[in-house]
Task: structure prediction
Amino acid sequence: MGTRKGMEVSIGIAEAAMMANVDVIPAYPITPQTHIVEHLAELVADGHLDAEFVPVESEHSAMSAACGSMAAGARTFTATASQGLALMHEILFIASGMRLPIVMAVANRALSAPISIWNDHGDVMAERDTGWLQVFVENGQEAYDHVLWCHRVAEDHDVLLPIMLNFDGFILSHVVEPIEVWSPEEVKQFLPDYVPPYRLDVDNPWTFGAVGIPDIYAETRMAHNEALTDSQKVMEKAWNELSEVVGRKYHAVESYKTDDADIVFLIMGSVAETCMTACDQLREAGKKAGVVRIRMWRPFPFAEIAKELGGRKVVVAVDRALSTGGCGGPMASEVKGALYHLDKRPQVIEFIAGLGGRDITIGDFMDMYDKGVAVASGGALPRYELLGVRA
Amino acid sequence: MSSELTNVFAAKMLPQAELFSPGHRACQGCAPALAMRFMLKALGPDTIICNSTGCIEIISSSYPESAWGVPWIHVAFENSAAVASGVEAGLKAMMRKGRIPERKITVLAQAGDGGSMDIGLQAISGALERGHDMIYMCYDNEAYMNTGIQRSSGTPYGAATTTSPAGKHSFGQSTWKKSFAEIAVAHHIPYVATASVSYPFDFMEKLKKAAAVKGPALIHVFAPCPTGWRCASNVAVRLGRLAVQTAAFPLYEVVDGRFRITQNVPHLKPLKLYLQPQGRYRHLTDDQIEYLQAELRKRYAALVARAEATQE
Result:
């Protein structure tokens, strides 16, 4: 059993990367992830972590250097947010297409314009189809555990894909929480050294990043897609192993008080904790509310979503991003896709909430619940609603 | 510099191994491909190449074939210097932590003139400033040849390209070629050199010096492109020589800030000899050629003065 310490979640993420004994950290400052790379720089400067800290001149170069160090065979960790993630966009596809298992923490933050340093999921939703594994965490402990878990999953030879660890900017990144840190023995038991199947090796030269002519491009995309989809098995296995080591059990989709629920909230990220508190209050008032949280965003958990939501009457989906001029909420859109083929599918009420750091309160969840009840009793189903936005 | 680096003066004394193998898809007479061949003869098998998107990447790596006998990685267009930073850092960390044996491995990043002087300049500046132990090499064929001969900031004044065409209101490229090597010098790195495929021993000697220094080194190698320069495919090497002899592309090195001209040209040849075989300059009038020659000579004189001023 590890020690429980109060620490800022960003510091916790950096400490977990140190426990993973990462070799290379290409880093560029951007709010609100900066505390992670600042703390890693300190850990390297003080000799607590033997790694190359590469203070690159942009996020584009951070991701490019990460591709280089990973191809050389070195365990590589970086972190970014918002505009930084957007600047990496081009290279994200290449990192995954070249099967380079980079681990990147993303302190989710709104995209400009207008410029906003505050939290929503607009940044990661724009990178949805980059071919990376993507998970969301809700609190400091989950963030810490998942840094180690991400290395374990990404570097597995049945996966070999980069992974984004999404956590809410400021709401999580700058909050001090109690975090149970792992002992070196626990890390050793859970996370083996990275052994690359291929690396830039002068004794055994490989060509990385060759041209894909029309005869081979589609096959490589299919192989990538299969590897990404199949990696769920390794993710589940690693969650099981993590629970054996530290006793905390995580799942691709997690449910809270859903057994007899009439109306189920669907949500990702730290606001799920507010949602669960609202759910408790609704239950106290005799209302049958439940919460389903999506942890595993890529690959998308189609089977789990269908199983959990298939027979329900009303699902209240709370998105943290807006697909402008399109479907509305990207999470709700995917969830509806997962439910479409079912004989009995719920009505999905879509809300887009908390854009650019706007608070989402317990009262907001109460309002969304009431609207869910109205739809359940035959009310009109709006396409989607931007919650609490002034006209 | 140790003298053992500089003792190869005959082609037969070069390593026989072709680490950049024949059978690639370069155009006939491609001087950048020749630069690759010389580069690996100089650096040998313990070299890792980080290649930008561009002619050399396209012609050498069409899956399932590869012309590369050394480890080679291509990520994107503007970032080979950043990729090489990561490779160098990764090797350093793994050697220090005992995961791979300690060994001298040369990491070389490269791109053409567009990938270096335009879109890749930020990543190059970052890599040079951070002091990675690596070589950056720009193979300069003076335009975006892979996409169809568009102008770059390495395209010389007066040259016609598909995006700086000559016409009634245009004499081709209206701006001066960027002094790329001097940008590297401004980073105070230990070694910077210009080179040319037409002076292969000078080029290879400079590569060996670049590999031997601790820290970043940069080589700007002139590599004519018959396709893009609208000239015969058998004149690339001759044009490279004329570029030096007319001061269109002087050869020099800068060691710890001290300039040295490595091919002195006391009597410069008329610029017209260099321009005349190239279709990209065929629209230029005698007056324009005169103006261009005067400016290049002025710049060459300034370089000579700088070399004299920075001698030990």
